[in-house]
Amino acid sequence: MQRETWKEYESNPLTHSAAHYLMTIRTLLQERGYARVTDIARALNITRGSCSISLKPLKKRGLVTEDENKFLQLSPEGERLAQLVEKNDEVLESFLRDVLGVDGEQAEIDACKIEHLLSLDTSLKLAGFLHYIQSGSKTIKEFLREFGQFNTECAGDATKCNVCDSTCLAEAASAPTTIIRPASRGVSR
Ligand SMILES: [Zn+2]
Ligand SMILES: [Zn+2]
Predict the structure, then answer these.
(1) Ligand of minimum distance to the alpha carbon of 172
(2) pTM, whole model, 2 decimals?
């Protein structure tokens, strides 16, 4: 189902970078009780200059505030967004790793990439589903055991593949213009 949503991708309320700034400020405030530009820059391994530039739109939107001594705080809305993205990241990573069986590191990477894009509704449904799975009833244990035995390896050939439909994903991934393997992006050209 292709809607016009992709056109709005860039106008997502929170960019990925903004989400990480908010989460970093939140962590710093929790861990040491204060967050200055220097602290954020160090935590994100970037220069103070680029950190200041990135913080500007967040201050303008009222998500981050700065006092006269240059100490940064999150506004209630900034705090809410940071919490939501953190929660999304946690739930997505657990869903990908514990339910779908994605490799731990890949689950962490993919969760990070989409954590800021989920609607609240999807986020709640996903969290609910995960709680349900974690309740560990007999039916769930059986379901997970059976799913674990289901072959989720792509056979590389759509006629034999258990996973893909008309297009085999492994075939698509080995094509030279792939967007599925991020590592090959920008290297060949
Ligand atoms: Zn991320
Ligand atoms: Zn396949």
Answers:
(1) 2
(2) 0.81
